[in-house]
Amino acid sequence: MRKMEEKTRRRYRRRIRIRRKVRGITEKPRMTIYKSNKYIYIQVIDDKKGHTIASASNKEKEFIDIKSRVKDAGRLGEIIGKRLKEKNISGIVFDRNGYKYHGIIKVIADATRKAGIHF
């Protein structure tokens, strides 16, 4: 249990460092990812207004078949990319939320880029 607490503390500190530098505006909102063992949550946030512009999660009824694994995470990236295109947003600022840029985080980012979103 002690090891997990240390891991969580380090991720939180990385998250604070990232958030000092990364801000989302109306033209280029911030896309953040949170992942648990079972679910993945993606939000696109306008920090100026404090509103969530778009979100996607494998907790939604139609995406319940997407598991929290690397091979399935790309579909969520494509879904959020399509939702942003519908709202005429072509560029975002990527916030990895303290997670290292590999695995699920990298697959989601690549799939979002593939959907035509620039960051």
Outline of the structure:
The protein is α+β, with helices and mostly antiparallel strands. It is built from three helices and four strands; from the N terminus they run H-E-E-E-H-E-H. The protein has one domain (2-114): Nucleotidyltransferase, domain 5 (2-Layer Sandwich).
Can you give keywords for this protein?
alpha+beta, Nucleotidyltransferase, domain 5, 4-stranded mixed sheet, 3 helices, 40% helix, 19% strand
Task: Report on this structure.
The protein has 119 residues and is α+β, with helices and mostly antiparallel strands. The chain has one domain: Nucleotidyltransferase, domain 5 (2-Layer Sandwich), CATH 3.30.420. The chain has three helices and four strands; from the N terminus they run αβββαβα. The protein has helices at 2-21, 70-86, 104-114; strands spanning 30-35, 40-46, 51-57, 93-95. The protein has a four-stranded mixed β-sheet with strand order 3-2-1-4, covered by helices on one side. Strand 2 (40-46) and strand 3 form a beta hairpin. Helix 2 packs parallel to helix 3 (104-114). The longest helix has 20 residues, at 2-21. It is globular, with a radius of gyration of 14 Å.
